[in-house]
Amino acid sequence: MHSRWRQIVLRSPSALVVAAVAACSVLLSVAALFGLTGALGLGFGGDFPAYVALAVLIPLLVSVPVSGVIVHLLHEVEDARQAAQRLAWQDELTGLSNRRRFIELAQREVDLARRSGRPVVAVLMDLDDFKLINDRHGHAVGDRLLVAVSMAVTQALRGTDLAGRWGGEEFALVLPGTDIDDGLMVMERVLQAVRSLSLAEEGRPAIRCTASIGLAVLRPDTERVETLIDLADRAMYAAKTAGKNRVAPAQTPLRA
Length: 256
Prior knowledge:
Structural class: alpha+beta
Oligomer: single chain
Number of domains: 2
Largest sheet: 5 strands, mixed
Shape: elongated
Strand content: 15-25%
């Protein structure tokens, strides 16, 4: 209930909020004045109109700045909540979903695919020889490369696809409504986007990278997205073993 009212307040123009608070204050003040006057038997003559004027004027003068402060604080609280949510859900470096958030979103897609019978593909992508890039050029350059890769991958994916940073130089993807053949086509496009990256360094040759990608399609006996990612992980290592810089589909099902 509190959350619903907070959203109503935040979505209302500040002027309306201030006016509403001021009006409520005035009504309550006047009602209280009439009530006390009648209860104490003071009557309504003499200076009573002046009292009413004060009861109207003072709340208006006080409530407008106070209401402005309250609205401002509510906006700050909401901004802080959204920032905390971003920190809890997003990888700080790349802006992609972090591992925890990715698993949560990907599991929803797996559950939906199991109910609807639609295919879904999970992918694990690892940048080839990334440690050498860090060793030769420094971790700051490595971080820049990770950001560039995450942007290239996001642009190469479709609007319904999910992407997250799995950890280090590994990225996890889920492609809803996609079978293994279409998944391979999408991943070849992603791989080409990674190959095409060129990170310029002043006075040095441009830094390029490749990736090894493994993908697995959801099996009828697979319930958890982690199980599907594990199968994609095995396929990714097969791509590494076969020479890197390639896409490899999973060959054997893995039971949940």
